[in-house]
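Budget justification, computational time. The allocation requested in the original proposal was used primarily to generate structure tokens for proteins on the priority list. As evidence of use, we reproduce two of the resulting records. The first is shown immediately below.
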Amino acid sequence: MSHRQLLNRSAGPRSLLSLLRPSLTRFYSSSSSVTSKDSAEEVAAEELPVTFVEDDGLEAEREARIQAARNKSRLLPQHRNMLHNTLPYEQSQSWIHETVKYKRMMVGRYGLDGSKVDPRICFPTKQEALERSEYEKVAFPHTLQEMMAVNRKAKQDKIAKIRTREEEIAKKMEKLDQWTADLNARIAKKEADARAAKERKDRLVEEVRRHFGFKIDPRDERFQEIPQEGEGGQAGGEGGQDDGEAEEEDGQPGEGRGEGG
């Protein structure tokens, strides 16, 4: 016994009668068996509970409610569609959605089936092809062979420039030892000059201290007078030496003359 018959039996005596009616009619008349069977099924369908009745509209609505309850992301429908890699809008929401650029973008992103766009829109029109050709003539006036020749020459110039630079560096590296020695000599000379200046200053400070009996700031005017006096004395001493040398030279001819006299 089928599930439907069990449900009809649980309904009561009327359902039992509806179960017996097809067998009785089939026993008395074979010609009216089909009609009796159809009427029994109609009565059974009417007596079934609502949950066992198949309704496409109710099933679709129930599935929609389930899907809405499963959506916990709180995203807008278009954003959720983009997340699942589907077309954001089923219908155009703005004039931008009707532009050729937007439709081509949808075809490239979601394919022919997912974008629901005529693929012929992806091909350029005659006007677009003409404008593109004119643009390429202006933007790229040279042929492929000419561009290859220019590129080859640019590479050769770059290699030659690098080679020249390497040769200059090699020549300078050969002179590196001499330059290092010259630099060290200049540094040593500067250090020697600085050391001599410091020693001269210390000597002058010591002379001033011996002259006055106490230390004087080098910025003091009295400190500036002592070096001038010292330089004058040195100049006088050098002058005296020059006079003595001159007298000796004069004495030699005098002796010669005296001997001659």
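The second record produced under the same allocation is shown here.
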Amino acid sequence: MLFAASCSFCSFIYLLPIVTNVWIWISFGTTYGLAYAQNHTNQDFPYISYTGVDEPESGIFSFLLTVSAIMLAVNAEIRFLFIRESIQRNRANCSNRWQKIINWQNIIGLVVGLLSSIGLLMVACFQVDTMLLPHFVGAAVAFILPLVYMCLQSALTCKLKRARWEWLWQCINSAVTCIIFVIFIVPFVYVKVEKKEDLKDVLLLAKITELLLALSLYAFLISFMGCFKEIRVLTLNVQLVEDNHRYQDKENRQQQVPLTYQHERTIM
């Protein structure tokens, strides 16, 4: 149903990265706002996951992040299809060997992108207060694999000689995101290891950089607008089984006619 809807609005498919970013902003804003409004958090600035612990935030948090994961997967798939079409048309003007390398890099990028969306889906489905281990596994996948995905896509953009703004956006965004990730992971691990009460400033730094990291990861998708705008037609063909049988029978009859005619000529 989602794919059919995207086919109906294929002329506006280039807006999908913007819609995805707006959705993630709305998601975080909604859960943060509800958590503060309901007094469900006593922290000055909680981690993202802790804004969806109590009701009704927990249900809303799961729903919003699930939709975000689906959007992320759709972006990754459309990007993969665009790169594959570009490789087939040899827009990179490279040898067959390099085409195979780019093709495999594109496949790896799709797998990494889909795994990243699965990690985000795990964060949405497994709440941090009840199922901590799968939640942390999903969070690690959702934060680490996108960094790999960003590097792969930046390399593909460079090889395909896309518009300069796309490559610059991806390179700058990737570098900034990696820096934010380091700033986030160091105080996060330090707080978990030390377990001291006088580390409020360090803890606050980890929480702020976690939010910035999530927003920066999604901001990378904006660079896909240029290639998505070149996509004109997305079709979904549906055929009944009985129609398929009729088509095969008709095709078989057409193949039998020349054979019969040839046999008659041989007899004559």
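A brief technical remark on that second record: Residues 52 and 61 are 5 Å apart (CA to CA).
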